[in-house]
């Protein structure tokens, strides 16, 4: 099977040269971590409730070049942010009490140039909390795929995983993929105070080129589902059956009037608590995965409207994931795509995330030629939408977006270069050290 085409030799060499300039070492001493961005075709907003999710990576993401430092210093530079980040691995890191959470669930302070190193510090924090002894730091240069707005592609998980892999490699630590999922979750939940689940980290660490990763977020059970080679009488293969189309809104920051990510998590838990109490199981952890579907059907009328919508999204999305995995395994991309679009619609109507520009972009994508299905990539408060598109019509679909989106959002579209409004990608592989 052909592997992901990312990163290119030119991209890797450019990062290596930066590290050589920083460290005074040789090119041959530079180690490279690649950590891809992810998309979630089905399973939106249910990972934190222990639901079943699907994900895959794309051939874009984070490249971190580094050389181990024997004195324990961490010295970092970024291709996106100014200034150096400097600290020592033997200094105890404490959770960020001042982190401000935006509507999209991202840490506001960590999106600012003054504190762009918080994920590196968070990685040290997570390793320290799990009892790993760090003696070596890293001198490194980190950058994202050139010119790509990573909002909605879980760049935070990609960055956190990249730092974990680099620090583990520098200190000769052997850590499993599943343990790294929990370590990255500790960065985001424990260090940064976010309330997200494990979908993003799992996708970054467990994906395999040409497959759809399925994870039960309650049991942590996961497997890779291969795309069938046949769709009716049409020969398919994972390299040429489809492309991933990313359409960008131009929104760089979450709109202030959108409800926050963390409040949605609380509403889901409140709905679970009410449903469990109604069934006599109030002692069970209040997560919707612990509510039997029959209990939900029997008692959903007792939920006030907002909580009813959150529960409806959870249970309907769980079903969409199960149906979608069957469609994928049988090569039925049309059914799979329809489920993606239904997921997008439920995210808007029942989970009530998104904003006007993102909803407009979603509606344009589902009208685009060759698109099987579309939804927000992420919460939909900023960033991009994703679409699964027939490979033969990918260019046509991208052109359609570039034509239609400026008509409804001329100001936002003008902030993006014309060739950056829509980007055609392929599936990626898992995070790894090259």
Automatic annotation (TrEMBL):
Is Coiled coil tagged as a keyword? no
Q: Which Pfam families match?
A: GHMP_kinases_C (PF08544), GHMP_kinases_N (PF00288)
GO terms classed as biological process: galactose metabolic process
The superkingdom listed in its UniProt entry is Eukaryota
- GHMP kinase C-terminal domain residues are 329-406
Q: Which residues form the GHMP kinase N-terminal domain?
A: 119-207
> Which InterPro entries does this UniProt record tie to the protein?
GHMP_kinase_C_dom, GHMP_kinase_C_sf, GHMP_kinase_N_dom, Mevalonate/galactokinase, Ribosomal_Su5_D2-typ_SF, Ribsml_uS5_D2-typ_fold_subgr
Q: Name one GO molecular function term.
A: kinase activity
User: What PANTHER family does this protein map onto?
Assistant: GALACTURONOKINASE, MEVALONATE KINASE/GALACTOKINASE
Q: What is this protein called?
A: Galacturonokinase
Organism, by scientific name, is Dioscorea zingiberensis
